[in-house]
Specification:
Elements (H helix, E strand, L loop, with lengths): L1 H6 L4 E5 L2 H17 L9 E4 H13 L7 E2 L2 H19 L7 H17 L4 H5 L4 H20 L1 E2 L3 H7 L12 E5 L6 H12 L3 E3 L18 H18 L12 H16 L5 H6 L16 H11 L5 E2 H9 L9 H11 L5 E2 L1 H11 L4 H14 L4
Parallel strand pairs: 1-2, 1-5, 3-4, 5-6
Antiparallel strand pairs: 7-8
Length: 381
């Protein structure tokens, strides 16, 4: 990364492919400054694509009258879910979907549509029931955004290509793209517009690693698994202490096939029953689901509380989870005892807030609920 690090100055914009790479690049830049003997330095302008567009939009919005407000990702996802519930309620098909997951998929799908400039008319032209439902969903989502004066993150692509020309995004002298194997249609058009205005774009490699001299193309996934495991066996025969990790995309869908290929390569003459009892040469692991990690589970639980009534079990989990911003505290325990005595089976955040406010003298837990309540008030009912 040394070459592009040395190119960064006050006129350089660095765009990275994702948030994880953003942190890595910031760390490498800081490490480079320390190696040069610097104790302080100006923070470089490093953004993800949407992080950069969002900052530019907010700056542009200061000088515009009645410009739409940009939704956060969590607000946007909740609005997708509310829009879905409305159109399903009208069609009497509300029981067909896992709505939170469907809202997440819709948010990502609509983002990709905007990135690749796929119009709503093209979606409607598809003779597919799911496509027609998605088109109705988008119509409802856009209707609510337009009526409330909101802008979703996907719309930033269109804003960068049309409304921003010549007014908002300045012509940066140097733009460095890191980690982009493929540029979306929106990014490509934006690059061309930037180059027309004098910007210079570079797409350097992230490391000095050379491309492999030979790339093997397999007939199918079975042949690929067999070939990779055969290479692993050769490496193990040369060094029995070596540890090898093989990453198999979507392993949950081809686990049986992968296990069969590994058995044929490493233990071709061993009975499968004996192998199951003793096969220390390799092991397969799917890991645990991301949603099962405590911190992530707590965050998902907090988000699920927005805009809906909670059962006692949900309220209990929200208040009692040690990883939650609302978890712990004597006031929470007392509140749960009161909820057990309530005749109602469901509770809103406003109800929990008022009860907790009376119990919590320090206001810490109530402050956390107030933050969730303020988010909830900015979204449609």
């Amino acid at each position: 990364m040394v070459d592009w690090l040395e190119q960064i100055d006050e006129d350089t914009l660095v765009l990275v492919a994702n948030s994880r790479l953003l942190k890595v690049v910031q760390q490498r830049f800081a490490q480079r400054q320390q190696e040069l003997g610097n104790t302080v330095w100006e923070s470089p302008r490093i953004y993800t694509w949407y992080g950069y567009l969002a900052e530019q939009y907010k700056f542009w919005r200061r000088h515009q009258l009645d410009a739409p407000s940009l939704l956060s990702s969590s607000q946007e996802r909740l609005l997708w879910q509310i829009s879905l519930e409305r159109i399903l309620r009208n069609g009497q098909r509300s029981e067909l979907m896992d709505k939170p997951r469907a809202a997440k998929l819709a948010q990502r799908s609509y983002l990709m549509m905007q990135e690749w400039q796929i119009s709503l008319e093209q979606l409607r032209d598809q003779n597919d029931q799911d496509g027609q439902l998605f088109a109705q969903w988008i119509d409802e989502f856009k209707r609510v955004c337009d009526s409330r004066g909101w802008l979703d993150n996907a719309a930033l692509n269109g804003w960068a290509l049309t409304g921003s020309k010549g007014t908002s995004i300045k012509g940066d002298a140097t733009i460095i793209w890191l980690g982009f194997d493929l540029f979306t249609a929106a990014q490509q058009v934006w690059r061309e517009e930037s180059e027309r205005r004098g910007g210079k774009h570079f797409v350097p490699p992230l490391s000095e690693a050379k491309e492999p001299a030979c790339i093997t193309k397999y007939v199918d996934s079975r042949a690929e698994l067999y070939g990779v495991f055969s290479e692993c066996r050769e490496m193990l025969e040369q060094d029995q202490d070596v540890q090898i990790a093989v990453v198999v995309p979507r392993l949950e869908h081809c686990l049986v096939q992968a296990q069969r290929a590994a058995r044929q390569v490493f233990y071709p003459t061993t009975d499968p029953d004996r192998l199951q009892k003793n096969h220390g040469c390799y092991e397969f692991s799917l890991g645990i689901a991301l949603s099962e990690y405590p911190l992530i589970a707590a965050a998902l639980n907090n988000l699920s509380a927005l805009g809906r009534s909670l059962s006692f079990e949900q309220a209990s989990s929200l208040l009692d989870n040690p990883w939650s911003s609302l978890g712990g505290g004597t006031a929470n325990i007392e509140l749960l005892e009161q909820l057990r005595d309530q005749a109602s089976n469901t509770f809103t955040l406003s109800f929990l807030f008022e009860r907790l406010k009376k119990l919590d003298q320090k206001g810490l837990a109530a402050q956390a609920l107030e933050q969730l309540k303020s988010i909830q008030s900015d979204l449609p009912v």
